[in-house]
Sequence to fold (155 residues):
Amino acid sequence: MLSKRQHHILRFVHQHSLENGFAPSIREISLATGITSTSVVNYNLERLIAWGYLVKSRGKSRALGLTERGLALFEAIQPVEVKWISEKLTVATLSDVNLPELDVNHLHKENLLLKAENERLRRESKNRIAALQREVLHLSQELRQLEQFSERYPT
Fold:
């Protein structure tokens, strides 16, 4: 069960993200919620992340996003059926769903996932490039040794 403070933080993160397209800073959360200590805000954010209400990308600032569990506190999201009909996107909902907010939140979550995947691929490619550079260095050293050997002992 969330405390009033945690619910207030979660509501502010949600509203700020909808209005601005990115999450608020810890200091902005502190000012908006009336919490004077940023460490108290950070503690509560960590609790909300651990309980599955928020997700945060590591090593990034302003990378908070509400999970489906967090969104469920603020929106009555019903299943949405998306179909492509003659190259037109049509959406059939089971109830009156606020599609712009749903789309924004879905895109925001997908964006965070893609950024994380991009970072993982960047690290992998960086490691692969480093390994290839080491291999090129090793092969060039072997080639020099073979050239020196052939100069010493011509056939």
Summary: Helices lie at 4-20, 26-33, 38-50, 68-72, 99-152. Residues 83 and 90 are 5 Å apart (CA to CA). DSSP finds five helices and four strands in the chain.
